[in-house]
Amino acid sequence: MIKSFGIKIMKIMAVFSVIIFSILMLKTISQYTSLDKNVGFLAFKQQVIDNPYWMTFFYIHIFSITLCLLAGLTQFSERFLNENKKLHRIIGKIYVYNILLINVPACFVLGFFSNGGLIGITGFLIQDVLWAFFTVKAILFIKKGNVTSHKNYMILSYAITTTAITFRIIKNGFYNEKYYDYELFYGFNVWLALAINLLIAYLIIRRTTLH
At what angle do helices 2-30 and 52-73 cross, to 10 degrees? Predict the structure, then answer.
């Protein structure tokens, strides 16, 4: 019972964290509505801001990722799923289409111009491939009626979706320009965020399987 209570507290904290991060991300995104090329992240990407393809995919990614985070968040409440099955399917489709038709292509292009050198570029591209793979597998399993495998792959998919949260937590919490080379730290942070999120997803899936 104590263990179950602890798991519920962790779930509440995780949901709260994602909501807070999404709100903060919306605040960050608002600065890009001016289309100023010298604000926020763009200030560090001056070498590519004149590339129309990069800028297009950047804005597509920035203005759609928060919806992806929030849409995915609603899919892991058993009570919500049981009471709102039709809405679950609608939100699920929004999440899937957002990832496969918008963010995976956009992030694939952006990945080639990532900070962090070759380490960062390969990390982002692998994240993108895994994002597409896990999401497609989730779709295929639900079409076959395999709900358990569908849930597991959706957990893995959402783990990739939320690497942005983990990445920024590590960056804001541990980066210090006096001690770390920015490019090297950035590149390793991409991989560390991916590893942490996949480990958490594995532990969640394992706990669910054991129960």
Answer: 150
User: DSSP of 174-209, one letter per residue?
Assistant: H--TTTS-HHHHHHHHHHHHHHHHHHHHHHHHHHHH
User: Residues 9, 11, 17, CA angle at the centre, nearest 5°?
Assistant: 100
Q: Give the CA-trace dihedral at 75, 100, 90, 18, to 10 degrees.
A: 30
How far, in Å, CA of 101 to CA of 140, rounded?
16
Q: Is 145 left (phi over 0), alpha (psi -120 to 50) or beta?
A: left
Q: Write down the pLDDT at residue 47.
A: 81
* pTM for the predicted model, two decimal places: 0.84
CA 35 to each of CA 42, 71, 198: distance values in angstroms, whole numbers, following the listed order = 10, 26, 34
Could you give the angle at which helices 85-97 and 52-73 cross, rounded to 10 degrees?
A: 160
> Across residues 89-97, what is the average pLDDT?
89
Q: Do 104 and 90 form a contact (C-beta atoms < 8 A)?
A: no
Take residue 201 and report the two structure tokens written for it. Answer: 């997803």
The CA-CA-CA angle for residues 204, 210, 211, to 5°, reads 90
Q: How far apart are CA 109 and CA 169, in angstroms?
A: 24
